[in-house]
Automatic annotation (TrEMBL):
One of its GO terms (cellular component) is cytoplasm. This is Probable DAL1 - Allantoinase. Gene3D superfamilies: Metal-dependent hydrolases (3.20.20.140), Urease, subunit C, domain 1 (2.30.40.10). It comes from the Eukaryota.
Length: 492
């Protein structure tokens, strides 16, 4: 309860506070970086505070958590190298309402340890970020040593790893995925799985190349939905064999979503993520004059308009646990490390197989989805913040507004703002395009607040946070998973 002598570092007055479970008009008092109190609207008006934010008419939510962000990664996909590092990527994040990101520490195929990859990513991120951050480790070589290091990952606050079922330099065999899942089960780690069948993809690519069908639009043709739904089904089966929790990343296909929903209905610990590109882009966006379509090349690819509806449905009905950006920015106009590295003299429209896969989107994720008006505000908070926090062991420090417990990470929207059109020039990433150029949005964060500090003030200074303010957040095991007994091969 508020006592008249209480003082705060910041008070947010009279906003409609939306969490994943409640909506109501409250004041929020912030002290020492934490939520100190939620009090009836306007009851903190006379409280002593260093800063007062009037949120009347606004929506106040826990800050966004983007659990799938590629930053400062080496050349894993052809010649493409990340255009964004931890500085520019997190600067972009806060301008779009995201207060915590989870990026990746990729283990190179030739490396037998995971800890070196984690050290390197932590070194890159240290003192460089505008928002709080954590890391998933990408396992490209599950050696005995790598598996033995899972326990150390947990000690260092990393409770998730990612594996790939595609990409030559990353793809694991099913037996290797089983090794990862078994170790993950033992150490309380959630396994993220990129579910596309790499062998079928390679075969399809050869079919298209032999017919000289090389342009960006054939990237979609090379990856039919069955390639995703088959791999999703297989990933679920492997997870079921081990009884380990899995998260299927960036689902684009309603058929894959159906498979996931069935598994969930059967009580399996299967979680799923989708991304804005699967509800806002279609394969038409890759079928543009010249090489332009390369801007929207990502994997899995955007699909058809009716498929977008299937993905919205999956968001609404809870099939998708989280919605992340899969921000993976490559310069467009760059022939060395960008999209145009796929152009050669004999293929002036490029060869789709060499186009670096990925689109920028960490900044536009929340505004685009909120503006679409397809999710209730509470559902929006659930998939954008609370569920990522629970799934990846950040809750309730993040993803909630629990007094005395949660960090004071907030995003404040003023829904009455004038709508505008997104331009790349208005964004804060380090790449020369956005796939959403010209798109109409009716929502953009007015304030982003991290641990009580305003870091984004749309109408007064824009980025007002500092590089280096962001902290590494140690994660615990997923809130969705309990301790599991030892796996027993004899039970089969
Ligand atoms: N897909 C992308 O589009 N980019 C990064 C990695 C991935 O799997
Ligand atoms: Zn990704």
């Amino acid at each position: 309860m508020f006592v008249g002598t209480d003082s705060f570092d910041c008070v947010v007055i009279d906003g409609t506070v939306v969490t994943a479970v409640d909506t109501g008009r409250y004041d929020i008092g912030i002290k020492d970086g934490k939520i100190a109190i939620l009090a009836p609207a306007r009851s903190l008006l006379s409280a002593k505070t260093s800063r007062l934010i009037d949120a009347e008419g606004g929506l106040v939510m826990p800050g966004g958590i983007d659990a799938h962000v590629h930053l400062a990664e080496p050349e894993l996909f052809g010649k493409g190298r990340s255009a964004d590092d931890f500085e520019s990527g997190t600067r972009s994040a806060i301008a779009g309402g995201t207060t915590t990101i989870i990026a990746f520490a990729p283990q190179p195929r030739a490396e037998s340890s995971l800890l070196k990859a984690l050290d390197e990513a932590q070194e890159k991120a240290k003192d460089s970020t505008y928002c709080d951050y954590s890391l998933h480790v990408i396992v490209a070589n599950p050696t005995r040593q790598a598996l033995s290091e899972f326990a150390t990952l947990r000690e260092r606050g990393v409770s998730s790893v990612k594996v790939y079922m595609t990409y030559e330099v990353l793809q694991l065999r099913d037996s290797q995925i089983l090794d990862v899942l078994l170790q993950a089960r033992t150490d309380g780690i959630t396994t993220m799985i990129h579910a596309e069948n790499g062998d079928v993809l390679a075969w399809m690519t050869e079919q298209l190349e032999s017919r000289l069908l090389l342009a960006p639009k054939y990237h979609v043709t090379s990856r039919p939905q069955i390639l995703e739904s088959e791999a999703t089904n297989r990933a679920i089966s492997l997870g079921q064999l081990i009884g380990a929790p899995i998260l299927i990343v960036h689902v684009s296909s309603p058929a894959a979503a159906e498979t996931i929903r069935k598994a969930q209905t059967n009580g399996l610990p299967v979680y799923a993520e989708t991304c804005p590109q699967y509800v806002f882009l279609t394969r038409e966006d890759l079928d543009q004059p010249g090489f332009e379509g390369a801007k929207c090349v990502c994997a899995p690819p955007p699909r058809d308009t009716q498929d977008q509806e299937g993905i919205w449905r999956g968001l609404q009905n809870g099939t998708f646990t989280i919605l992340s950006s899969d921000h993976c920015a490559f310069y467009y106009n760059n022939a060395e490390i960008g999209k145009k590295s796929a152009i050669t003299e004999d293929a002036p429209l490029g060869r789709f197989r060499y186009i670096p896969n990925g689109c920028p989107g960490v900044e536009t994720r929340m505004p685009l989805i909120l503006s679409a008006g397809r999710l209730t505000p509470q559902k929006f908070v659930e998939v954008m913040s609370t569920n990522p926090a629970k799934l990846y062991g950040l809750y309730p420090q993040k993803g909630a507004l629990i007094p005395g417990v949660s960090d004071a990470d907030l995003v404040i929207w003023y829904p009455q703002m004038a709508p505008f059109h997104i331009t790349n020039a208005s964004l804060h990433h380090n790449v020369d395009y956005t796939p959403y150029e010209g798109r109409h949005v009716s929502q953009w964060p007015r304030y982003t607040i991290i641990r009580g500090e305003v870091v984004w003030d749309r109408d007064s200074g824009g980025i007002v946070g500092q590089k280096g303010y962001g902290q590494f957040v140690k994660r615990t095991r997923s809130a969705f998973c309990e301790d599991l007994p030892a796996w027993d091969v004899e039970k089969f």
